[in-house]
């Protein structure tokens, strides 16, 4: 830059020699283009409407050095800067880009959308040069998400999520498949398919619609030693948290269990097991809609009171 300024100053001096008519003292008017082949030094500000450095020919131009800042000093009537420094062509930078100092407290600020050119070609970071943290207030759209740990405070929604580590959060809602090694949720996991090669850990109950297969729909423990018409329910769990009723329908050992919530046991898979261990006991169960009757008997086929565990799938 200094050489260029000196060159222009020297050219002005040569212009004085070649001017035929007189000019004002602060204005130089050369009659033609002046070429100067020596170094020019300017010890004060150089002002020019435009400047060309190098040649329009590709690869010709050399290197220009700036030891300070490039500033656009255009201001409005209030003295405020009105125009940013504008680079009207592609920019190549062979060094680092930073503000004030590398790693300082004055971060690089962007005031526009970042768009790669061309699309789906370049990466942001590498496996050996990673960004530390990322913060977004909107939607993150990606074809694939790979994470060692994915922590959610809200909802995960999408068609497919594949994890190599843990998924933790309050809600995960999928319309497709969730595959991974571990899923830990404090809320609900809903979707069409969840396939895991490892453990599934839930902090609450695992519920499934009554019409679907796989999970338990109801579990009931009954006391077969109660008197006729007595309450034989010990404890129970159902998918809708309703409590069934259990009573002896007639004198003897027959028990009747009624699911007031409308669980159609007859349309489901179910099993009844005797839990009385002092003697050999067995039990058969007959379901009609949401009512189940149990017929306990001993090893000789005689009626015998027994405690019963009943599970509906």
Write a structural description:
- The chain folds into 3 domains: 1-137, no CATH class; 149-202, no CATH class; 218-312, no CATH class.
- The chain is rod-shaped and about 130 Å long.
- By secondary structure, it is mostly beta strands.
- The chain has one helix at residues 2-18, and strands at 149-151, 155-162, 166-180, 182-190, 193-196, 200-202, 218-222, 233-238, 245-248, 255-258, 270-274, 281-288, 291-298, 308-312.
- Helices cover 5% and strands 28% of the residues.
- The two termini are 84 Å apart.
- Strands 1, 2, 3, 4, 5 and 6 form a 6-stranded parallel sheet that branches.
- The model is unreliable at 1-11 and 13-22 (pLDDT under 50).
- Strand 12 and strand 13 (291-298) form a beta hairpin.
- The protein has 1 helix and 14 strands.
SSE layout:
Elements: H1 2-18, E1 149-151, E2 155-162, E3 166-180, E4 182-190, E5 193-196, E6 200-202, E7 218-222, E8 233-238, E9 245-248, E10 255-258, E11 270-274, E12 281-288, E13 291-298, E14 308-312
Parallel strand pairs: 1-3, 2-3, 3-4, 3-5, 4-6
Antiparallel strand pairs: 7-8, 7-14, 9-10, 10-13, 11-14, 12-13
CA-based gyration radius: 42 Å
Beta-strand level of the residues, as a percent range? 25-35%
Number of E-state strands: 14
Report on the biggest sheet. Answer: 6 strands, parallel
Tell me the series of helices and strands, N- to C-terminal: HEEEEEEEEEEEEEE
Q: Low-confidence stretches at least 5 residues in length (pLDDT < 50)?
A: 1-11, 13-22
Write down the overall geometry: rod-shaped
Category by helix and strand content:
mainly beta
Specify the number of helices: 1
Portion of residues within helices: under 10%
- The first-to-last residue Cα distance is 84 Å
Mean pLDDT: 81
Q: How many domains comprise the coordinates?
A: 3
